Here is the input.
Amino acid sequence: MQIMSAKELSKYLRINEKMIYRLVQESRLPAVRIGGKISFAKELIDEWILENTQREKLIFIAGSDDPLLKKIIDLFNASQKGITVFYASVGSMRGLELLRDHVASAACVHIYDAEAKAYTLSYIRRYLESENYAVVNMFFREQGIYVPKGNPAGILSISDLTSANIRFINRRKGTGTRLLFDFLLMEAGIDPSRINGYEREAESHLGAGTAVVSGGADASVGIRYIARMLNLDFVPLFKERFDLIVPYERFGNAQTKALLDFLNEPLFMHSMKDHEGYDMSQMGSVLTKDTAR
Here is the structure.
């Protein structure tokens, strides 16, 4: 049996340690005391997540990695009593799988369908084998190329990544960013094998940017917000839509309604001002087939 500390569980569930201790104090989280310290059995935690998600005592969102979504969830959890959101950044495709298998109660995705020239809805039909899901826009964000400050290699477009002296690091397979990058390569007629480092993978936008900051790579792909945070230069490539997918059976429940209502609160919107690279003008809007392009 794997035992985790509160700090380790905090990373596993993607919520802060204060929330962990609050849940323990309220007897809402299974915990054990070992040597006077509170610890957690991973197997019991996994069972607890599944049981409580099914009973709709919490919201478990799985899918794409995004720092703004993480901040939204932290603010929501800090403002609520009795409702908790957990977030697992496992990639857009894995998020859809967990939603399909009834493990996650919602999925956060940004998947561009190269054939349909559209986001999200075609993948619901393809991977969830159902249209009984609401698609809620969270925001739009800019994707592009991370390069060191001053852009010493003079990278101005995706084709410049094929230069033999450019060391690239990619995002991992199954992420929306990787799917988008592959689509852009295809549109430009570029064989991925021409990019030095195409098979190298970073786990997150922050990991991709950090590889460039540290000198481990000359370029990577990710969102503008991280480039600004790490003081990197940024070559814009695409403005993408980032959505939350919720089954209709959960869409009208109190937990989901509380989260969607929170997105429209003036205090929340005021705290969202300083997020370069994001467009939140349609946040919370429910999309239909006619508005999904």
